[in-house]
Write a structure and sequence with these properties.
four-stranded antiparallel β-sheet, 2 helices, alpha+beta
């Protein structure tokens, strides 16, 4: 999302709806996560495509509302997931690099 100002306000709640589905409610909108997203997973990056709008009484289009929901509700978690994934990748690349150096030394 670009550096545009959010039109929706922080604040809202989350409740468990029918079938154990989490329903999130903000001022003027209500949404849930799509079926392929488990809200208890800590390694999942939330994207606008993971949002199903249930009610939209804001002036925003559904597409821009989804983008703003991700930015407002899930940006901190997304940042944490990105940092963790980057650290895991750094460690993995360091191990691969160390193995390659070790093999190169044995050949010489």
């Amino acid at each position: 999302m670009s550096k545009m100002e959010l039109e929706i306000k922080a604040g809202g709640n989350c409740s468990v709806g029918r079938g154990g589905v989490y329903v999130y409610e903000g001022i003027g909108y209500k949404f849930k996560l799509t079926a392929d997203v488990n809200p208890t997973h800590t390694s999942h990056l939330m994207k606008p495509s993971h949002i199903k709008i249930l009610n939209n009484s804001t002036s925003l289009t559904p597409s821009s509302l989804r983008e703003q929901i991700v930015s407002l509700w899930f940006s901190d978690e997304n940042d944490d997931v990105r940092l963790h994934r980057n650290e895991v990748a750094r460690v993995r690349r360091a191990k691969i690099s160390a193995k390659l150096k070790k093999k190169t030394r044995k050949k010489i």
